[in-house]
């Protein structure tokens, strides 16, 4: 069980974090049993007294005074001292405090600076949960794509796949390291993929987490590797909704 504690005084942001976590817990990271909680500073302090295992803390640094900032940074230290394997995602509300916070926070699991965009929130959580799964040795057969070739079966983690491309009667599975070709149909595979994949073209299905920019003016998606994939009009609206941001028109 991974306790996940949202220490965020802003009610709207707190709801956003809980929604993102709930979606991940019931979607691509169902293999991670999460206990979702939220609380203010004193509640987090009490949790640190009772929780000895690895936890994930989303810690907002939103105070305006020196003392308020010091209290939050002392909490960061306490989380690390309690268990050096704990994950602390630091959310800085005032960009002017970035340097001060970075000077005090040693090796946070992640840092977000206001404005907090939903896509960045999700990316940060996914990086942490991927690391947690790897370190804990958690396996979930539903988190892998199974490729059969003759008498061999190859297992590919969905998180490693950037996009899938239909090419004649073959399927190119483009991962972060290499391309795997299999005799499969893109249409048949589409129904088996988890929610992090979205179709952008009759010949392409893309991993949302690998998208750097969605440009609907030029009808393309640019990946974080700078590769560009085409977007067809029939998938335009679904892609925009899935990407969760305002695309360029």
Describe the structure.
- With 249 residues, the protein is an alpha/beta fold.
- It has helices at residues 11-25, 41-50, 66-82, 98-104, 118-136, 186-190, 236-243, and strands at 2-7, 34-38, 56-61, 87-92, 110-113, 144-149, 152-157, 161-167, 170-175, 179-182, 197-201, 204-207, 211-215, 220-223, 228-230.
- Strands 2-1-3-4-5 form a five-stranded parallel beta sheet, sandwiched between helices.
- The radius of gyration is 20 Å and the shape is elongated.
- It starts with a strand and ends in a 6-residue tail after the last helix.
- Morphology: elongated
Strand content: 25-35%
Low-confidence stretches: 245-249
Total helical segments: 7
The largest sheet is: 5 strands, parallel
Feature tags:
7 helices, single chain, alpha/beta, 5-stranded antiparallel sheet, about 250 residues
What's the layout of helices and strands?
Blueprint: E1 2-7, H1 11-25, E2 34-38, H2 41-50, E3 56-61, H3 66-82, E4 87-92, H4 98-104, E5 110-113, H5 118-136, E6 144-149, E7 152-157, E8 161-167, E9 170-175, E10 179-182, H6 186-190, E11 197-201, E12 204-207, E13 211-215, E14 220-223, E15 228-230, H7 236-243
Parallel strand pairs: 1-2, 1-3, 3-4, 4-5
Antiparallel strand pairs: 6-7, 8-9, 8-12, 9-10, 11-12, 13-14, 14-15
Helix pairs in contact: 1-5, 2-3
